Amino acid sequence: MRSLSKVSVQLTPAQKHLYATETQVNFRLIAKLVATRSRRILTAADLVSADLQAELAEYSQFVELSYDAMPVETVYQKMDVLSRPNFPLEQSDAVLETKLLKSLHGRVANLHAFLAYRPSKKQLVLAISGTHNIKQVFQDLRAIRKPYRQGKGCAVHTGFWKLYKGIKEAAMESLHDTLQPLSQDVQEIVITGHSMGGAVGSLLALDLLLNQAELLGGRRLKLIFYGAPRVGNAKLAELWSDATQKYRSEHGEGSLTECLVKGYNDGVPSLPPYKLGYRHVTKSQLYSVGGRLYHIPPSECEHGLFDISEDAKAAGTAVLYPRGGHNYYSERDWERIMRRLAWLVDNMDRYPDWEKRYYKEVIGPEQAWQRKIAGSKPKYA
């Protein structure tokens, strides 16, 4: 039985143009070299509900902004412009309804995170950035483990621990300062992150569960990570399991939700390698492929690639990003969003005719494939 990941997909002109102009690293080669393929074939019975998939797509909108391609304070100030068609936040409804509470920068490698409040959900969202500068890359590569002193035999990735320690104080203080005045208005806390941000988010969540449970106040806690690497050894994973189960036993089974979303052809969740003694802390994982999300059985949580059954593929949707990779979670082109934001940062306040330039220099090249195949004008013309 062949999987979607093994089938040769005929690329559309738009997809050919997308991949020809792709510049960010998507770790597809790492996936080929390091990721192991599970023998368990995912079927239609493993598909997540449409509601859950939509909810996870909402959290990814916050993660995109955490990269600070445009300072998050500026994003919220210019939300009306940025949410227009052909602008970076044109499909970011979850973010549009929120209020920015705090922007955080860690002392180590300038790691960025921000805290926002969603009144309609009575939800506090803390989003943590993935790697986006050379100093953070250096920390990513510090894969020698060091003792995690709150659990016997536990060990943690040295670089991720360093990054977490650099932002811990700011994150804890911001949560405390926010929850005090909003204590009656916050029913749920979401910690989310992409890539290295997911690793740091895991360490923050574990710290809260072990040492700051009173700060959570028994509220529902959601830990949602995308394309995150492994953060420690098997003993650390056991400590995580004990801490999360304790919270559920004290506050109800639905009080804590954890989820790691792994993408097809994304090699990052397979790093650092299993053979080096690293393990994922959460066994609650989903696999993203072909525009759908599948539950990964806990026994298969260390694998990075899965075959998809024919019945599941038949129930699938149009595949927007068939090659997968690290920057296409929630069926969104994160590179395009970052590129648009970065251009606006450099030019929006620089030129009186910035909008005309934006369409010419950003949107025009993005839609060049249309003119190439049909001699058509760009959609904005």
UniProtKB/TrEMBL annotation:
Superkingdom classification of source: Eukaryota
Catalyzed chemical reaction(s): a diacylglycerol + H2O = a monoacylglycerol + a fatty acid + H(+); a monoacylglycerol + H2O = glycerol + a fatty acid + H(+)
Keyword check for Transmembrane helix: no
MF GO annotations: hydrolase activity
Domain Fungal lipase-type: 125-272
GO biological process terms, semicolon-separated: lipid metabolic process
UniProt keyword Transmembrane helix present: no
Keywords on record: Disulfide bond, Hydrolase
Pfam families, A to Z: Lipase_3
UniProt family annotation: Belongs to the AB hydrolase superfamily. Lipase family. Class 3 subfamily.
PANTHER family the UniProt entry points to: ALPHA/BETA-HYDROLASES SUPERFAMILY PROTEIN, FUNGAL LIPASE-LIKE DOMAIN-CONTAINING PROTEIN
Listed name of the protein: Alpha/beta-hydrolase
Organism ancestry: Eukaryota, Fungi, Dikarya, Basidiomycota, Agaricomycotina
